[in-house]
Amino acid sequence: MSEKDKKELTQECEELKEKYKELEEYAKRLKAEYENYREEVAREKRELIKNANEYLISKLIPVLDDFERALNQGEKRNAFYEGVKMIYKKLLNVLEKEGLAKIHVGEKFDPFEHEAVERVETEDVEEYTILEVVESGYKFHGKVLKPAKVKVAVKPRKKEERNVEEPSDKKE
Q1: Cβ–Cβ < 8 Å for 101, 139
Q2: By CB atoms within 10 Å of each CB, which of 43, 91, 102, 130 scores lowest?
Q3: At a CB cut-off of 8 Å and minimum separation 6, what does 87 contact?
Q4: By C-alpha distance, which of 114, 131, 115 is closest to 123?
């Protein structure tokens, strides 16, 4: 083999090595992009499922409210009442396992979680203390779907003493 042939083969070998490195880098990038794509699709799928569940659960919240109203109105010690109570608890458990949570009503009014449906003037408790829950509120994965409807304490309005002079008919 001549020196020229060796040189051509060496150059061709170097070109092939360079091409191989380029293809190897391309394959690595393609693999990384594919993995990112798979992760993005999986994330979008999870988000889609979460949104679909949120929609369905938001439609079931009025049913929970109706159950609570029925349980608050019914006779407490008969078989029908106990059956309705069991169905309510079962439905609530299923929804809680999917991410629904009742908004726990603390002592203070929180406008992000509560809706004040009535203001009660009183000095017996601190202002903006929740006195009564009218309807339960619910969150789904931390997002408020329905605020709790509550009665809130406010300070009584002070009656201003009016020292209004009677208008006189006399002109000065």
Answers
A1: yes
A2: 43
A3: 67
A4: 131
- What is the amino acid identity at position 161? E
CATH hierarchy code of domain 100-157:
2.30.22.10
CATH class of the domain comprising 1-98: alpha beta
Would you state the pLDDT for residue 172?
43
**Distance (Å) of CA 28 to CA 19, 25, 32, 39, 84:** 14, 5, 6, 17, 60
Fold match flag (1-98 vs 100-157): no
On whether the pTM is more than 0.70, the answer is no
Residues of the chain scoring pLDDT < 70? 74, 159-172
Helices and strands per DSSP (H, E), number in the chain: 2, 6
